[in-house]
Amino acid sequence: MWRDVKGFPEDKHDAIRMASTLHSKLQGMIKDLKDWKIESPANLLFDKTEREKRSKECIAYCRITQGKAEHDQE
């Protein structure tokens, strides 16, 4: 298209073509990035902390109930 225009410098044509190609590639990259599901590693840490807390609560509960059972047997 631009080659048909008289006096339009060839290097400008190449620059526009390259800019158009780059723009298309960047738009594709933006679409890909928007589709990514991003999760913070903090979620994994919170899950681990919650599991440890529940485990400690369970152990404490078992000790309390076991202590009551031993007390009741006496």
Structure description:
It is a single chain. Helices cover 80% and strands 0% of the residues.
Low-confidence stretches: none
What about the largest sheet? none
What's the total count of β strands?
Answer: 0
H and E order: HH
Query: How many individual domains?
Result: 2
Structural class: mainly alpha
- What is the typical, i.e. mean, pLDDT? 78
Instruction: Using the alpha-carbon principal axes, give the shape.
Output: rod-shaped
Rounded to an integer, what's the Rg over CA atoms?
33 Å
Helix content: over 70%
How many helices? The count is 2
Descriptive terms for the model:
74 residues, 80% helix, 2 domains, rod-shaped, mainly alpha
Compact description:
This protein is mostly helical and 74 residues long. Helix content is 80%, strand content 0%.
Detail the topology: elements first, then pairings:
Elements (H helix, E strand, L loop, with lengths): L9 H26 L5 H33 L1
